[in-house]
Design a protein that fits this description.
With 60 residues, this protein is an all-alpha fold. It is built from two helices and no strands. It has helices at 6-22, 25-43.
Length: 60
């Protein structure tokens, strides 16, 4: 079963919060959708490529 690095997940959530505080709601929503898709893939048991939650395809 794939595992999630909880510290890395918390950092990514913190990044979304920072983006929201900065007022860029569209980027924050996009980043949440990316994170949601990755977590749903993990929950479905799909193998994630090494580092999927570690790299950041996000808009900052």
């Amino acid at each position: 079963m794939p595992s999630v690095d909880l510290l890395q997940l918390a950092k990514r959530i913190d990044t979304v919060l920072d983006i929201l505080v900065g007022g860029d709601h569209a980027s924050a929503i996009n980043n949440l959708e990316i994170l949601k898709a990755e977590l749903l893939n993990l929950a479905a048991g799909e193998e994630s490529k090494k580092g999927d939650l570690q790299k950041s395809p996000w808009e900052i």
